[in-house]
Amino acid sequence: MITWFDENGLLLGLALLDGLAYAALVFMVSVGLNLVFGVLRVLNVAHGSFYAIGAYAAASLGGMAGLPVWASLPVLLLAAVLVGLVLGPVIERILLRRIYAEEPVIQLLVTFALFMILEDAQKLVWGVQPVSNDVAVRWLGTVDVPFAGDVIPFTKYQLFLLPGVALATLVGLAWFLRRTLTGRVIVAVTVDREAATAMGIDAKKVFLLTFTAGAVLAALGGALASPTTSLVPGIGAQTIVLSFAVIATAGLGQIEGAALTALLIGLGRSVAVYFAPELEVVVPYIIMVAVLLVRPQGLFGAAEARRV
Amino acid sequence: MLDLEGVSVAIAGAPVLRGVTLHVPAGGRVALIGRNGAGKTTSLRTLMGLLAPSAGRVLIGGEDAARLPAHHRARLGIGYAPEDRRLFGGFSVRENMVLPAEVLGLTGAEIRRRLDLVFGLLPELVTLAPRRAGGLSGGQGKMVALGRALMVGVRAVMLDEPFQGLAPALALRYAEALKRLRDALPELAILITESNPELLRPLVEATFVIERGEIA
Ligand SMILES: Nc1ncnc2c1ncn2[C@@H]1O[C@H](COP(=O)(O)OP(=O)(O)OP(=O)(O)O)[C@@H](O)[C@H]1O
Ligand SMILES: [Mg+2]
Predict the structure, then answer these.
(1) In Å, how far is B35's CA from the nearest CA of chain A?
(2) Which value does ipTM take for this structure?
(3) How many whole angstroms from B137 Cα to the centroid of ligand 1?
(4) Domain boundaries A10-294, corresponding CATH code
(5) CATH fourth-level superfamily of B2-215
(6) Is there a smaller number of Cβ atoms within 10 Å at the N or the C end of chain A?
């Protein structure tokens, strides 16, 4: 029996606060993957590379010598946006565009190959030694959270900034997709590419735009994660596998579904960190398998078959 | 206005259309009649640029459409109401209708003018307008698909089996709407597909019959 006042309760509280920050990062990456898959129908393995490169670019630019401390955070965000805005369009134009008509297996292989190439490029630029830069976290400082008569210092970065950015992204995206013409056009292509084309929509333009937005979101996820961890080769792979788990669990559909699922998986993982550390890595997949056994279409996926 | 000249189309390697020639003059009302699987939908999708012919020419407004991207049909004033409606279920009926006009970049005033025109021709759409398209019956959906096609289809509309599955009362109303269309927009070309040749006879001036991918 766990209560808020015993040690387990304390741990649970800590785990939930930790999990919130982690869920925010998971959301940033998986919502982009979800969007890209919905519109392009290509499962982009290289989405994880955008995360990794965004993280490395943010860490090196945000930690440049001579940069004022307060500038680290904006530079970090800017670095991610730049990474997405450059890599997204270039890769969509050069590579993705050629494989839209291919079988899903071919598409998967091609984006996997791209992932391997980007992983090597990233090692070439940033090496294999851990890279870290937590200037932004230290600049924001900590806040004391009272727990069972104790106070635990939490970084404001993980307590407020990460969940805040994720929430703003969620609300902003939902508003954009529902209330703007470009958003409705993206939704129309997601629902029925051929009907959208007959309505005068240039699907190719929508692919480019969506892929770029997805790349920016992934890079932002990486950049936001960078001050909280040290970066090593392999973070891209870890991220993409976790994001697959999130979109498989959520099912294709509204971004709110991706958000709730990211929360579920983020909290699940960090509760495991505190209570059953040996399970940390597998908890997201245990959740995924449990959900898919009961609801094969995912938590929020439409029950009826979709026209692809 | 809409022409197929000796068009052949293969889907997934199997030939579906074989040298189809069909002509819809400007302002003409033409029926394309054929049994299930004869190639009616394939003919319309080819005219819409959604399928590429392996032989022959597609002409839109007399111009070779080989290099015309599919999505430019709307800009040329061609509307399309697909057989299975293909409405965007999460949008309202009104949003469905307005979307192609907004994509074209029409002004708000022009969009309202066209909406009023379509509501005048299809009064049942007025009450449906705020409803979610995903919640409509099949027959209501057909009406909405026609309305949506008319929002951009100022020169021609293609209606794929609009009467299929309509209850008799609704079919009657749909046929009346088509007659109103003819009177109100005499310059609009209409290409309608149907499996029953009798049904369209009073509505059209010319009929093509398609059998197993060939014009009979
Ligand atoms: N996507 C597809 N894949 C394989 N074959 C197809 C496809 N679409 C159409 N066909 C085939 O092409 C032929 C013509 O189909 P089409 O849909 O044009 O016929 P239709 O006249 O519209 O029939 P219906 O009255 O049933 O709507 C059929 O034999 C059909 O099986
Ligand atoms: Mg058909």
Answers:
(1) 24
(2) 0.94
(3) 24
(4) 1.10.3470
(5) P-loop containing nucleotide triphosphate hydrolases (3.40.50.300)
(6) N
